[in-house]
Structures are given as structure tokens and as C-alpha cells.
Queue: 3 jobs
Job 1
Amino acid sequence: YNGFGEEVHNREIQLTYGKSVIDVARRAWRNPHSLDMIVDSIPMTEWLGRKCGAALTHSRFYVPRLEKSCPGPIATAPLSFDARAVAPLPDRADDDIVITTIGHMNQNKCADAVIKAIAASPILSKRCRYRLVGMITRSERARLETLCHEVGYDRINFLGEVNDAVLTAEIDRADILSSLRKPVLEGASASAIEGMKSGRPLIVADTGFY
């Protein structure tokens, strides 16, 4: 944002994590979309922690890193908000199962993994409809549409960005909410909390906040 170049980028990473990560820093500069590599080696949480007088996290996930870097007090408070007006999961009149992913549809959301899993099962591919509710770029939509074509799965809906009323209706419509992340970057997941408050079963990764 400030127009600093690779030299400053690499310097700040090295100051935070030491000389051993300089090769990772150089690769991250050239390929910023390699999130797994960045999260494993240089998440920069400690870089941010050094700049804070105190820190409040939404789960214990980030606390060890902040304890090493933030000079002031650190506390944890759950991310909380009112539940939506969504009824408990009812018995459905038909055999269709609706799986829904909510949020910004980037590759971190693992929609491709869900598509592959559904398509790999003759039973699931016939019964499961997959709905993506949230902003999605043209390139990401095209990537997922290409994947659907390759695996022979066409029961997918791209809703894009929606208003609050439509979001509530989509949670109500869902039988299952997928809240997968790879890698897990957030201290708490609003979509996972929405799912629990609505009484929907969740698909999650066994790591981080989850």
C-alpha cells in the first residue's frame, strides 16, 4: 500500500522470524497466493503484535503468537452476535440435501474440495445441491465451473453477494453448512457461529478456531 519494495518486505519478515525464513520471504513476494507456505512459516501475527499496546483475540488460536510479541495485556473474548431468525432444521419433504458455503468465495474456502467430494459419490452427486452465497470473482467462478464440468457435477448455484434477508433465507434453506478453510487464518469464523446458532451441522477442519 505504501509502495515499499521487496527489500523492505524481506527485511521486516527477517526481523520478525530470523534469517532462516529469508528464502520463504522471497518466494512469498513473488507468489503471494501461496497461503499454505505463508501461514506455516511467516503468518506475520508477531509483526502485528509488536505494534500493539494490547491485544484482544476471539479464540485461543492466536494467543501463543501474541504472547511472544505483544508487550501489553492479552485477553480472549468470544465473537458473539444475535442469532438470526432461522428455524431448527426441519424434516424435508424431498430427498435433496442442500450444502451451503457462506462468505467471500476465494480459494481459501475449499469449494473445490466440496465439489470433488460430492462428485466422487454416485449417491451424493444425485442428492446434493451446493450453493455458494457470497462475493466471488469472475476468475474464481470460472475455475469452479470448469471443475464442475470436468467432474460431471452440475447441481451448483452461485448466488454472489446477497443482502441480509437473503442470507438468512439461505441459512434456513441449508441442511449443511460448509465452513472449511485451508489454511485457517481467522481467530473466529462468523459463518461457523451462524451455523451453530441455526442448529445446522457444519463441515470444518480440525485446526485453529475450529
Job 2
Amino acid sequence: MDFGYNYGYEYNYDYPSYVNSNGSLFAALMYIYLIILTVIAIFALASYIFHSIGLYTIGKRMGREHAWLAFIPYARDYFHGELAGEISLKNKSIKNPGIWKLVLPIIYSAVAGILIVLVVIAGIGAGVATGTNRGMGGFAAIISSLIGVYVLILVLAVAYTAVYSVLRVLIDIQIYERFTTRNMAVVHSVLSAILPLYESICFFVMRNRDFNQGMRPAPHIAPPPVPPVTPVPPENPLPVQGADPASDKKDDAAQPPIGEETDHKTE
């Protein structure tokens, strides 16, 4: 029996659109991040290769024996500084710039690491002070010391960057001066300290240029070979050690004296 009623049940579930949009946005960000990392890695590898080839060729042309150090990490920093030679300042001079270029980052990393450990200890102390409710006085003291260490790290980073950049500019000036003018050497050195890939390209381009007049390193001339010395026997040889003196006496006794021989002939 149909009374004309039509019961239709339709259920539609609408999920929020932000679920799919967040997933696609995260995927897009990851793709962009991977692309940026790939570009950075390519630029870093190209800079390393160009820089190493340039240093190696310049070092070989300057007569350096260990030019292969240009391809070894950390050792290439030392070799880069040693190519410049002694750097003369107004009142002082840097005799071994390669050693300073190698040691300065190590010193900075050690000091910065110690300061970071102090920051971590101060942060733990602040957390302990907050958890045990020691009062705002102790917490404020820890926070102030924490801020002081942060400021010290910032000052250290700025000072290190300034000193290292100046040393790098001085080293590059003396290398570039072998191939270009003084003014252009200064310009190239400053741009090398600012732009990441500039120094590598400059070394790679200048590696086969002719040296400026007076800047060509002196050729290494091997000393002439020393002729062998022929031993000269002595005029009066000494008696051989170990000889039997009795045999010498027998030979003397067998020969008559000179006087006796003449007397016998006279008779």
C-alpha cells in the first residue's frame, strides 16, 4: 500500500579543504628546499674545483714542490697563504700567512665552542631555577649572564670575521699583483672577500697568464754535479800495520854492509 511518501536519504560529507592544501603546500616547500640545496651544492663544488685548479697551476708555475695541497681541505688554506709569501705592513710583517689562515678558524671554533657550552649551562641553570622556585632574583641573574654570553659570542664572531677577511684580502692582493696591476689586485681581492665564487673564478682565469715584469719567481737551478775526486797515493807510504818485523831484520842481515863489500873486493 503506497501512501505517496518517498523517503530518500542522501548523506554528503564535506571535509575541510585545508587538509589537502596543507599537504600540497608542504610538498611544494620541500621541492623548493631540495632545489635550493642542489643549487648550493653545485656552486660549492664548482667553487672548490676552480679554486683548487687555479691554486695548483699557480703553485706549479711558481716552483712550489707541494702544489697538490691545493686539492686537500684545510691544507689548501695553508697553501693559499703560502703562495702570497711574506706580507709587509707598515711596522710589522706577516712571515707565515698560510699558518695564520689555517690556525685562525681553529682558534675561533674552539673559543666559540666553549662559549656555547657556557650558554647551554646557563640555560640549564635558568630552567632549574625556574623549576625549584628560587625566586626572580636568581632567575634574572642567570638570564643576564646568558645574554652576556650571547653578546660575547656576537662580538667574537664580528672580530673574527673582520680579522680573517683582512688577512684574506692581503693574501689575495699579493697573489693578484703577479698577474695584474696594484689597483686591480685590490679590487679583485675585495670582491673575492664579498662574493663567494669570485676568488675561484679569478684564480682559474689567471692561472696561465704571464707574470708581470719583476714578479716572475726565480727559476730553481740545480747545482752542477761535483766531479769525483781521485785519491793520490802518498810519496812515502807508511809501513803496513800487522807486518812481521822479524822478516825485515832477516832481509837486512842477508845483505852485507857496504864497508865489508868494498874490503873484500880490494883483497
Job 3
Amino acid sequence: MPTLFASDWHWGETVDQLQINNTNKYDLKIAHKRARNMIEIATNLLKQRFNNPEYSGIVFALGGDMVSGDIHEELSITNEVEMMPAVLDLWGVLIWCIDRLADEFGNVFVPAVVGNHGRNTHKIRNKNRVHTSFDWLVYQFLAKHFEKDERIKFHIGDGADVYYEVFNHRYLLTHGDQFRGGDGMIGALGPIIRGDHRKRTRNAQINFEYDTMLLGHWHQLIQLQRLIVNGSLKGYDEYAYINNFPFEPPRQALWLTHPEYGITFSAPILVDNFERVNQSEWVKWK
């Protein structure tokens, strides 16, 4: 069973390439192209690059921060469009994505959690977190749109985490903004691993154990057995550049869950159009 993980699209945000040494550019036109590339590349990989593939469907996980939001003054000034047009435009694109996946794979399961960027409050809330998020509103509109389509099922979180199983492999989907800290040596892994440990301890006490945690937020693709951290559709931006974070291309996570072995094949879906590089020797040594 394949899983395509979509998160941190920051729909409506702009990235000025001149401010980051021409390493990335982002606007609505580019966002549309990257979303389409994500679906087409993942579909091609899953259906054309494997020998006689047989899938019962596909999991299309939505991990939050789908819209840019107005939580920072600089975003409210530099966003390409206001929140409402961004929400409407994103909704239409996600409809196309889910329709295409349903046509290609037959069934689509959509687990979804909200992020921190789409909120309409100054500070993130613990109570009624999802009901102050435009991510949640987009998800609900999607569920309404597809409510008569038997191929498509939604599991939209009422809280910060969503639990589901694929072939008895237990997943916890969260956004990841609960985890804070890190430094120049360990980067995001320190707070993420600590957060994973705390969640596993808490969940063991309430009979909600899981095998793999899925999260976004950090805009760094890390694919392990115990946790999968998603990249972003937006890619490298001014915030990452100013803070001297390592360069990360725009990409989203894809993997297969095997009925017996759990997570097997994993691959990044590079959503941008990259230039070809000069061919080099396949191996060399000194």
C-alpha cells in the first residue's frame, strides 16, 4: 500500500529568489505546477517503475500548514493573495489531486491533521485547535465534496494527532510544531526524537501505541522506520536562508507499507523541474 505524504504547501506564500541566491522561487503558479508534478511523478513511479504492481488503493496523508496564513506580519504583507482566495484555490487543487489518485489507484484514504500556520488566532491554541485552522476548513470542504464517492475516505483529526493502520502497521500522524529546540549539530532530529519518545510513552499508557510517527513542519525530509519527517512543497525560503539552515529542495515523502514487513520502499518525490547535470562515471576511486 503506497502512502504519499503532502504537507507544508504554504499556499499563497511567495519566496523571492533574489533574496536567497536564486536557490528557490515560490508563488501560486509554481505551487500549482509542483502539486501536479507530485501526483504525476508519484503515479509514474508506483505504476510504471515496478514490475506488475498491485495496489488496493493509496494513502494520501495531509500533514498541515497547507496554507501560508497571516500569523506573522511579514507574511500578511508578502503573501500573494489573502487567506480566503488562497483557501479556495488550494481546495480546487486538492480536489484534482484526490480525483487523479482515485482514478489511478481505485481507493484513496485521506488522514489529515492541521498545522500551525493556518490558524486565525494570534497564538496556537490547545483547546479547539482544529476549529481555529483553515487547514481543517479545507479538509472538511474536501470531505463534503467527495462524500458520495465510495472510493474516497477521510479521517480528519479533532485534535493534534490522528491514528490509523495500514496492514496492521500503526501510524501516528501529527504536524510536528509541538517539538521545539535543536542546534547546529543535531538540527531537527534532537527535538523530533525526544518528542517521539514522549508520545510513545504517553500513548503506551492510553493503549494507543504506534509503530511509525509521521510529521511535517520542519521542511526536512527524513525517512526512517520509527519516524518519517516530510519535506515541503514550498522549498527553501528566506527564513531558512537567514538562519543558515541547510539547503532542502522542494520534495514530499512516498513509501510502501508491506502486509508482512511494514515499511519497505521509500523515495523522495522531487516536485520541481531540475536541470540535467553532466553525466559522470558511475563509480570512481583514488
